[in-house]
């Protein structure tokens, strides 16, 4: 009886709890009543932690649906310039106001969201393709070749991605949606490649991978048939965070004047008007598009953290 009671107490103390009292249930087994040292904070945190990803998914779904079906929820052409309504504050006719060129911000947000989300998704796909190829090649290669590939990856990773993207975009000329997606995708694959390389090195000596190689399976056959299904769950977190980083990079490049031109509406190009907006005290030109961008990035961050937490639980149970 005493040994069982001591084991229960040690278990509770290891989980950051304190003992309250021991009650004998039916005179046979002890039942320990306890409470957390921090009261109900951990309980509230766990409940909030479960609801936060769901709320983020719902909000993100609403934003994506609004961008996809923007034709149904807007009545004004986002590219139409009404010179008689420059810098118009939010009102009944223009619920989000107009910008310095007389364009309706409400319509611009939903149409511009299409471009920003497209760049984010395409950039994530490009970076994922590069990362899977390089990471799997490094993980499957010999130790010397693996070291060479990883050192090159570390050198590229040591260069800040924003100056690297600016240099590549300057080399490609005037920015457009495709070139910006390629530039952002080509400068954000390094961390993902290191993750895939680690997963492949753990899987390359398994019996089914060795059997596939001995039966004549090529590199890409083994990669997509046997290796990829095992590291895709770990990769999903990186893909979600890559979409978030790509959207933020597009906005930053447009804000610095290296992104999309003003006539190509996106959340980043809308924020590029912030200097003129500050000079005219037109706060809505900055705050409203910035709020949509911030909420979208927070939703992607919450979903990414939720995926990372689930993966950590899964690995801890193995």
Task: Outline the structure in words.
The structure is a single chain. The chain is mainly α and 318 residues long. It is 70% helix and 5% strand. The protein has 13 helices and two strands, in the order αββαααααααααααα. The chain has helices at residues 2-14, 41-68, 70-73, 105-140, 143-158, 161-172, 177-186, 190-203, 207-214, 219-255, 267-271, 274-279, 284-317; strands at 17-25, 29-36. Strands 1-2 form a two-stranded antiparallel ribbon. The radius of gyration is 26 Å and the shape is elongated. The two termini are 32 Å apart. Residues 15-48 have low confidence and may be disordered.
In terms of topology, how is this protein built?
Layout: H1 2-14, E1 17-25, E2 29-36, H2 41-68, H3 70-73, H4 105-140, H5 143-158, H6 161-172, H7 177-186, H8 190-203, H9 207-214, H10 219-255, H11 267-271, H12 274-279, H13 284-317
Antiparallel strand pairs: 1-2
Helix pairs in contact: 2-4, 2-13, 4-5, 4-7, 4-8, 4-10, 5-8, 6-7, 8-10, 9-10, 10-13
For the record, give the distance between the C-alpha atoms at the N and C termini, rounded to a whole number: 32 Å
Strand order of the largest sheet: 1-2
Number of helices: 13
Mean pLDDT: 79
Helix residue percentage: over 70%
Radius of gyration: 26 Å
Tell how many strands the DSSP assignment holds.
Answer: 2
SSE class? mainly alpha
N to C succession of SSEs: HEEHHHHHHHHHHHH
Quaternary structure of the protein: single chain
Mind describing the biggest β-sheet?
A: 2 strands, antiparallel
**Share of β-strand residues:** 5-15%
Task: Give the overall form.
Answer: elongated
